[in-house]
Amino acid sequence: MHAGAEPTGAAVILRVLRVSLHVGFAVLLLVALVRFLTGGVQGPGWIALLLAPLLAAVYLVGTVLEKRHSSDPARFDPRPYSGWWLGGVSLLWLVLVWASADFVWLAFPLFFLQLHVLRRRLALPAIALSTVLVIAALWFHGGGIAPLGQAGAGQAGGAQAGAALELPMVLGPVFGAAFAVVTGLAYRALFLEAENQRLAAVELRRTRAELARTQHNAGTVAERTRLAREIHDTLAQGLSSIVLMGRAAEKALDDGDSAMARERLRIVQDTAAANLAEARNFVRALQSPDLENGSLVASLHRLCEKTEAEADARGAGLRCRLDVEGPPTELPAAHQSTLLRAAQASLANVRIHAQASVAVVTLSFLGPEVAMDIFDDGGGFDPAAVAARPDGSGYGLRSLRERVAALNGQLDIESTPGEGTVVAIRLPLGNQADSTAAVAQAGKELP
To answer: CA–CA separation, 172 vs 253, rounded Å?
Structure first.
């Protein structure tokens, strides 16, 4: 089990089993060494005093390296050398078993190591061979052959002399090996389950991160589109009016008409002040300052008056009026903002492009919906042929469609070259929840 695994039930069980395995190995090795020393060390038996600490060190190094790598995959990976490590541990164990029967019981944790490190087709034969070696060691130290030059004497561990291979010498290691195999296979199944869960958790975190990046990018694009609409429908239109009024004032000065020049400069100042208010509202809630100073109907009245004044300043003679049908009702902020922006953009197009003499804005309160129509008797155009141009002009219709679509509304444009234009907008009102959702969709800010 890797340390980075999710703390599932299988992971907890695996952790307990692994800790128990390591503790068991250490306890068995310590007990065997103590019994060996208390039984009296003679002749070559002193080799066990050197090999037992060496076995403990080799075992500890292997487990520590594996643990460090599982917690941080960038560290040294000991897995390619795990077979050699297991071979070294087994060899040291065999020499210790030759020295004393007390070390044979280390075979049981070794069974688990063999199942964990080796492939199953190699692990099972290795366990069988280890079991045979344990039985042989017990018989060897039981008196079958005198170990380390001690003929017929009982060895450390209290084994009785005798050449016969007794039944407990066989059944104990065999049952121990069988139990180890069953437990080891269960351990491996849990290990695979925990590893699959860890990989699934890693993939889930990666997917969540990717989804978060995608949502952030989508939010960025939506915010840019929203700001483009706001800038086009407010600042860009205002700056365009300032440029035109500035040229008109310059012409009036050239003609010596100071009164006309002063009037057009006043319009420039008013427009610049309005644009400044719009720019400041970008930092706040992007609510039109016209709406802050009155209702939608009053704002449309002021817009019509402003349109006429700017047209008069250019000598166009455009007349603009507002018709209200039905009793006015309080509209959601998103609906008011969309209708006012639509009127601003449409009347700006009429003033600049249509060469019209009359423009009529009709605001209709129809119960479950609100409608607004902007009519002009100008030259008309082909709506299908209109597209945004590289200089930023021609963006108004697309922006208006996006605004209306954000509120689940409908936009229709009827125009034919030479026959005027009608821009018709229908917005459903719905309930308060729908209005709140529409506000979030039409004018949300980035989180």
So the answer is: 117
Q: What is the residue range of 350's domain?
A: 211-443
pTM above 0.70, yes or no: no
Contact 402, 443 (CB under 8 A): no
Q: What is the pLDDT of residues 299-316, one digit of tens each?
A: 899 889 888 888 887 777
Question: Which is it for the CA torsion 178, 183, 188, 192, positive or negative?
Answer: positive
Give, in order, the Cα–Cα distances in Å from 346 to each of 303, 343, 387. 11, 5, 15
How many structural domains comprise the chain?
Answer: 2
Reported as a pLDDT band with limits 50, 70 and 90, residue 146 is very low
- What is the predicted pLDDT for the residue at 361? 94
**Same domain, yes or no: 218 and 363:** yes
Close Cβ partners of 361 (under 8 Å, ≥ 6 residues apart): 300, 303, 304, 320, 321, 322, 323, 343, 347, 372, 373, 374
246: burial class by Cβ within 10 Å (0-12, 13-18, 19+)?
A: middle
Question: Which residues, in sequence order, are bridge partners of residue 413?
Answer: 423
> How far apart are the C-alpha atoms of 159 and 39, rounded to whole Å?
11
Give CA–CA dist 405/205, Å, rounded. 35
CA distance 303 to 420: 20
Residues 6+ apart with CB under 8 A from 145: none
Are the beta carbons of 29 and 35 closer than 8 angstroms?
no
Measured CA to CA, the distance from residue 346 to residue 277 in angstroms comes to 21
- Is there a contact between 437 and 400 (Cβ–Cβ < 8 Å)? no
Do 221 and 111 belong to one domain?
A: no
Do 143 and 231 belong to one domain? no
- Residue 290's pLDDT band (boundaries 50, 70, 90)? low
Whichever domain contains 420, its CATH number is 3.30.565.10
Q: Is residue 64 part of a domain?
A: yes
- Cα(340)–Cα(301) distance, integer angstroms: 11
Nearest Cα neighbor of 43 from 147, 192, 181, 168 is: 147
- Does 345 lie in the same domain as 231? yes
Nearest to 228 by CA among 425, 394, 424, 437: 394
